[in-house]
Design brief:
It is built from 3 helices and 2 strands. The chain has about 80 residues and is α+β, with helices and mostly antiparallel strands. It has one domain. The longest helix has 16 residues. The protein is globular.
Length: about 80
């Protein structure tokens, strides 16, 4: 199944309204290509360590992927 978020960006992070619920969705058919990097990102975020520096160096931010972006009027 190919899922997409309204802004066509993956959803990665803890849900702001549901305690301990972590999202990893909206990969839109690119799961195979993104799996190595996104799995490292998820592992780091789940452990509370933030975005790994090599991934952050590519311009990836926790805020840009967070499901909270949908609850404040941004992205969809």
């Amino acid at each position: 199944m190919r899922t997409f978020a309204s802004d066509k960006t993956p959803v990665v992070g803890y849900d702001p309204a549901i305690e301990n619920f972590f999202w990893l969705a909206g990969q839109g058919g690119y799961g195979i290509q993104t799996a190595p990097g996104i799995s490292r990102l998820v592992g780091s975020l789940v452990r509370g360590k933030g975005v790994p520096s090599d991934i952050a160096d590519l311009g990836v931010s926790e805020q840009a992927l967070s499901p909270a972006r949908f609850s404040n009027g941004q992205g969809g």
